[in-house]
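Quick review question:
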């Protein structure tokens, strides 16, 4: 009777990154229907910390040996083919989302000590706003953050899946020649 192969810690971290990606997509989509998950459940901000939990190990197991573009491709080698287009798509989306949202440049919505609401830049009030406006601007704030969360969780998941696949290949056949992409990059 064959036993199932043991999962590596990289696969578990990749799964955690996948959960973070799905949750950040959910939070992001909710902003388009007028629901601000960060106001309703402040625990959503833990997604901000979760990015670092999965991204630092993803970079640690995929060291770049040079600044050449091929070295980034080597970091994704061995993993599922769908990860590169998904990472590219979320990177472009995060950038466009960021540019659209920061284009207003009006400031961050804050609740003032006296109970009023305002837009502030570096602690200075730029404009007093109503409570409905405050919630409207909070949606944009959440949308900006969740757009970046989607990218960083997707990147971490792709890097971790690729590293796990390369590690599994090495354990199965350590004498198998490296792929041409890995040979060119010096990985």
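Suggested answer, residue by residue:
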């Amino acid at each position: 009777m064959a036993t199932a192969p043991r999962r590596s810690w990289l696969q578990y971290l990749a799964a955690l990154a996948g959960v973070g990606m799905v949750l950040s997509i959910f939070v992001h989509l909710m902003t388009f229907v007028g629901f601000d998950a960060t106001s309703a459940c402040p625990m959503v901000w833990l997604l901000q910390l979760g990015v670092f939990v999965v991204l630092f190990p993803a970079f640690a197991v995929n060291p770049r040996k040079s600044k050449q573009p091929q070295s980034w491709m080597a970091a994704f080698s061995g993993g599922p083919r769908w990860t590169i287009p998904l990472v590219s798509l979320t990177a472009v989306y995060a950038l466009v989302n960021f540019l659209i949202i920061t284009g207003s440049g009006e400031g961050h919505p804050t609740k003032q000590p006296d109970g009023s609401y305002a837009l502030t830049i570096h602690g200075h009030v730029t404009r007093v706003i109503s409570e409905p406006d405050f919630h409207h601007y909070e949606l944009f704030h959440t949308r900006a953050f969740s757009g970046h969360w989607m990218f960083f969780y997707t990147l971490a998941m792709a890097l971790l899946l690729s590293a796990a696949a390369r590690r599994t290949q090495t354990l199965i056949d350590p004498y198998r020649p490296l792929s041409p992409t890995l040979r060119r990059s010096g990985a």
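Why it works: Confidence is low (pLDDT under 50) at residues 171-176, 182-187. The radius of gyration is 21 Å.
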